[in-house]
Amino acid sequence: MKMLVLIAAIAAALVAAPYAMADEKAAPSNGKPSATKSAANAKSDKQRLMKSLRKIVVDSLKDPASANFKDEFLSLSDDKESKTVSLCGYVNAKNSMGGYSGFSAFVVNTEGVLSMESSDTPSVREYLWPVWCSRPI
């Protein structure tokens, strides 16, 4: 539960960051943090959020230590009213037989919902990516 609260707080800060940076660029410099510093903070928030969401994926694997990720990115949902952020990408990890199973698409959002392609759910890219991965940030 604490992890989801942390993830939600980081996501909220990340979604608000572009607006804060725009306000700082418009305002005169009077000792407030610069837009460059805000951009660095936003990047740090983004990295922390990715790490937190990646942990949800890793914890769901049979061999978490074997996880390899590629092509990861954060995205807002296609619902303009929603502040839900998702991590989208591909993961490869060892299966119960000890062999790598190949890269599978996954989507995990700030509400803790994880969907990963498998033989049972092969349509993550087809059905979930257009909704949860269509607005990269």
Short description:
The protein is α+β, with helices and mostly antiparallel strands and 137 residues long. It is built from three helices and five strands, in the order ααββββαβ.
Describe this entry's structure for a reader:
- This protein is α+β, with helices and mostly antiparallel strands and 137 residues long.
- It has one domain.
- It has a 5-stranded antiparallel beta sheet, with helices on both faces.
- Helix 1 packs antiparallel against helix 2.
- It is globular and about 45 Å long.
- The N terminus is likely disordered.
Write the layout of secondary structure elements.
Elements: H1 2-26, H2 35-59, E1 68-76, E2 85-92, E3 104-109, E4 114-116, H3 124-132, E5 135-136
Antiparallel strand pairs: 1-2, 1-5, 2-3, 3-4
